[in-house]
């Protein structure tokens, strides 16, 4: 076996290719990756072909079965290697991935040696996609590519689809071309909104203090300068100040529903556990869709912001018909679940959440059960939301519908409040 890490696509091509090259070098056969059969002297060709076929069979075993479907036709190491490189080594996409990792790297919970190791790994990946060169022209090209990628990394979420189109283009645009394209988009108009519901926070007063209206009145939604999201200002940003310790419950749950949800979902809060289930509304539920490549909604009222651009894609509906998206924007199916780059498609009668996109952009995990589904932050383990199964579909609530919440103190906190000795003494 060449490597335990099988090739699954462009996301791990760099590490896979480095492992393959190292293995071939260790076996003394690195020439098979760069030499065609026709370049081998005829007297040595029979033996060379025999060895190459054996090596190619090992290469086959180093890729995911789904990837192998595209590569099985290539039966020499040279053809297999170059085809994989052509398919999965998009220089700009790889540079974007590496630069994003460099920009966002933080020590956080890592120990120092792990953090330093991650920095060293990023340095090697950067040098792979941006190799050192003494040619002045190549240096200028590399600098242009790097600053183009930095420009795309820091774009606001509503321009994510434009970023994807640039990264996926067959030819690499120049930095000036990207600037010109973005400036053209910035001149497009933004659609007005009359949405009066503040759906950005999940806070309700306890019964003893009275209810709280979500009405903010008409006008521009507030903007947070810390997280760059709409619906609140920096002095009320939960990412900056932390989430509130408790939320009141609005609709009671059965004991069975509560037990199922709390046993399956890990809630990262100190002192109490909070569980939120979803409920449908007149605006229609948000459906978790494994087949959707983008978030889609046909209801403009569900957007907190929306814009039109000249680069909106064509959407294929469930009945096979095609329609052009009319806008792209931000929506909040749940207060703790912001969806960026949602395509506004009036012809679509459903509100669809792309499972692949939400797990990638929010670094979340989704667990399905027979009657409900949980969404969790992979880094903190915090529960983002819980949805219900209805008629074979798993759906979340709309922003206009209050979440069904119940709050209870953690067993250890109750134990301490009752004056019992610490469990660590037993």
Automatic annotation (TrEMBL):
Which InterPro entries does its entry note? Answer: PolX-like_BBD, Znf_CCHC_sf
Pfam families linked to this entry: Pol_BBD
Give the top-rank taxon of the lineage listed in the UniProt record for this protein. Answer: Eukaryota
| Disordered, as annotated region | 197-220
Task: Give residue ranges for domain Retrovirus-related Pol polyprotein from transposon TNT 1-94-like beta-barrel.
Answer: 286-359
SUPFAM superfamilies of this UniProt entry? Retrovirus zinc finger-like domains
- Which intervals carry biased composition (Polar residues)? 197-206
Q: Which GO terms describe its molecular function?
A: nucleic acid binding; zinc ion binding
- Indicate what this protein is called per its UniProt record: Retrovirus-related Pol polyprotein from transposon TNT 1-94-like beta-barrel domain-containing protein
Q: Tell me the organism.
A: Vitis rotundifolia
